[in-house]
Amino acid sequence: MGQPVSEISTSAREAIAEALNQAVAETAVATMLAQNFHWNVKGMSFGPLHTLFQTLYEDHFVAQDDLAERIRALDCHAEGQLAGMLKRSKITEHDGHQSDKEMIQILLDAQEQLSATLSGLEHVSSENGDTLTEDLAVERGRVHEKFAWMLRAHLA
């Protein structure tokens, strides 16, 4: 069973916060990526993709806050600068000039990266007895796996 934050060592909280900050950074970049594609998608699939991309960025916007607030609950610093997030993120920006299929693939790759990052967060949290962060990581990972499946279905 987990332990309250007050019983998690400073070094463990810092390690968990580092993994959380990675998840925040990648979620923030994925949020803007989905919004950029929402604005710029065109073609015969415009309607459903415009809606899907909006669903992604709205979900991700809330998730950023949940992840960052967990960092603060651990009494650590949440990265709040876009430059820092871009530098840290394994998800990269795009200019929105991609085709609809390229947009889908880019967002699919982003969802898979987020799922992998959250899996790493789950592992660090579990190792350090932080079941609340572990639970958050598992739930967010599940969401990103579902989005990946939805995006993948458009490419089949």
Short description:
This protein has 156 residues and is mostly helical.
What's the arrangement of secondary structure elements?
Elements: H1 10-40, H2 46-73, H3 82-88, H4 100-127, H5 131-155
Helix pairs in contact: 1-2, 1-3, 1-4, 2-5, 4-5
List keywords for this structure.
mainly alpha, 156 residues, 5 helices, single chain
Number of strands: 0
Mean pLDDT: 96
Label the structural class. mainly alpha
Principal-axis shape equals elongated
Task: Give the low-pLDDT segments.
Answer: none
Percent helix, as a range, is over 70%
The largest sheet, given as strand count, sense and whether it forms a barrel, is: none
Please provide a written account of the structure:
The chain is mostly helical and 156 residues long. The protein has helices spanning 10-40, 46-73, 82-88, 100-127, 131-155. Helix 1 (10-40) runs antiparallel to helix 2 (46-73).
